[in-house]
Design a protein that fits this description.
- This protein has five helices and 33 strands.
- With about 525 residues, the chain is mainly β.
- The chain has three domains: about 220 residues, no CATH class; about 110 residues, Immunoglobulin-like; about 120 residues, no CATH class.
- The longest helix has 28 residues.
- It is globular.
- The C terminus is likely disordered.
């Protein structure tokens, strides 16, 4: 091949190669750059939304653990701690290890390991010493943290700055905790509600908006806005007239400084006394306490279903005032009740009576102050004044009957009116009422249900004490607590009745107020 031929071939190859590069360059210039596929961003975690989606069941405070769990914790002042673990759908998680660290009464952090209890349907545990039945409080309001361990999951933890501790009840009601607020709620079958609440700075005295939801006998829930009553030192309210409350969920909502906190207990026993005693809520049971003149206390225990718990429980009572040893109550088949004997040296006016029921391996607690009970207040007052136990501080243990104001109208339009005020014992009250009725010349009897409705505020500290005479029934109670703080209500109940007489009709009305208890 000649040299010219070779040069011609190389030139042709170079021209061809340059053309290809230009086409590639043109292609690169006009090619559109495809954007990377869009990736959906993971939604941000909203703990407040998770909390609001979970409905409490124990009446405890809720907090978030990890990113998908909510833990409800109910710490009791006596040392017991109950808890539940919920997943994001609100299902209860049972196969977990739950550890709750609470603030001890001594200020130290106290970790408590909780175990699942099928009977209680919750995780339960207690700080050291709680099962020794000591009367002193072992847990205080303060910081609280939780740790949840599950198989194949990373441990989840959570904490809050302040969780209230459920105090020892003094009115025999349910104790609930909503964040940094605790409350004791007393509900009566007739629809009356009393609530005392405590925040980080002490008792709430009208500086909060409080609402409760209560069930009727059919299970339907009713919202009731409570109103602060200074005379009663409590928030009071009632459902509409004629509605009777029953067992079921009890909800509590409190709003302070624009912040709302709420909780709920799935089953709250609401029962009227069947033995003329005082009904105390103890866990999901009720204990009706009936004091006797000889210092004995009969206790009738009913389970969550209303069935009598006759002999498979252990009952005891504990008092403050220097008497810390528990007083056992043993089953008495003849009496059909658990019976305890309160020693004469016990001052029942000094502190709430702590009612303890051990059943199924666990201790359940309730409490009521003697002055706060209908039967207890009267029985113990008489016992103390008779020198059979306890001391009466100066100015305490008084009974006052305001009224009665009894008016009657006879056939000839005759009108009699008797008004007065008597201080003394219950017998004197009855005598005064009977005398007033005789002077009025008619028999006055109130419709008990209507009276109780009108006197709804009286329950709480004193339920309702009736001083009954042959001719009159006096239905209103206001109990004064030690130091002069009113624990009942001072409103007046009114009842009317009419009866036919030969040749005409007589009508009568009775208005009365009574104060029984320990007050200055």
């Amino acid at each position: 091949m000649t040299r010219k031929t070779i040069e011609a071939l190389l030139l042709a190859f170079a021209i061809a190669t340059a053309g290809c590069n230009e086409e590639e360059a043109d292609t690169e210039e006009v090619a559109e750059v495809e954007a990377p596929p869009e990736v959906d961003e993971a939604p941000s975690f909203d703990p407040a939304a998770l909390l609001s989606s979970i409905t409490a069941r124990l009446g405890g405070a809720k907090l978030v653990a990890g990113n998908d769990l909510v833990v409800e914790v109910l710490p009791m002042a006596g040392g017991q701690v109950s808890g539940l673990v919920y997943d994001a759908e609100g299902n209860v998680v049972q196969n977990a290890k739950l550890t709750v660290t609470v603030k001890g009464a001594d200020g130290s952090a106290k970790p408590v390991e909780l175990q699942w209890d099928a009977d209680a349907e919750a995780y339960v545990g207690a700080v050291a010493g709680a099962d020794a039945e000591a009367s002193a409080d072992l847990i205080a309001s303060g910081p609280l943290s939780v740790s949840v361990e599950r198989d194949d999951f990373e441990p989840a933890t959570g904490e809050v700055e302040v969780v209230a501790v459920a105090p020892t009840p003094i009115y025999g009601g349910d104790v609930l905790v909503a964040g940094d607020v605790s409350a004791e709620i007393v509900t009566l079958p007739i629809g009356a509600i009393q609530l005392v609440a405590y925040g980080p700075q002490g008792a709430l005295t009208g500086d909060a908006d409080i609402k409760v939801s209560v069930p009727d006998t059919s299970g339907a829930s009713h919202d009731v806005n409570l109103v602060w009553n200074a005379d009663a030192s409590a928030y009071l309210g009632s459902v509409e007239e004629g509605l009777e409350l029953g067992n079921g969920p009890l909800g509590f909502t409190v709003v302070r400084s624009g912040v709302e906190q709420s909780t709920r207990v799935a089953v709250s026993p609401v029962r009227a006394p069947s033995h003329e005693g005082d009904v105390v809520v103890v866990g999901n049971m009720t204990v009706e306490l009936v004091p006797q003149a000889d210092g004995k206390v009969y206790a009738y225990v009913l389970g969550r279903d209303g069935a009598s718990i006759d002999s498979d429980a252990q009952l005891s009572f504990a008092f403050g005032g220097g008497h810390t040893d528990p007083i056992p109550a043993t089953w008495d088949a003849d009496a059909g009740a658990y019976v305890a004997v309160v020693p004469p040296e016990v001052d029942v006016s000094a502190a709430p009576m702590r009612v303890r029921v051990r059943r199924g391996g666990h201790m359940h607690r309730g409490g009521i102050a003697a002055p706060a009970g209908r039967a207890l207040g009267v029985a113990w007052r008489s016992r103390i004044e008779a020198g059979a136990g306890g001391a009466v501080p100066p100015g305490q243990a008084r009974v006052r009957l305001a009224g009665p104001d009894i008016r009657a109208r006879g056939r000839g339009g005759v009108r009699a009116s008797v008004m007065g005020e008597v201080a003394g014992d219950v017998a004197e009250q009855a005598a005064a009422a009977r005398g007033a009725a005789v002077m009025a010349g008619v028999e006055v009897r109130g419709a008990a249900d209507r009276i109780r409705g009108a006197a709804a505020a009286a329950r709480g500290a004193a339920a309702m004490v009736q001083v009954t005479a042959p001719m009159v029934e006096v239905p209103m109670v206001s109990v004064m607590a030690s130091g002069g703080a009113s624990a009942g209500a001072g409103s007046t109940a009114m009842a009317t009745t009419r009866r036919r007489e030969a040749g005409g009709e007589a009508g009568a009305s009775a208005m009365a107020g009574i104060m029984i208890g320990f007050g200055n």
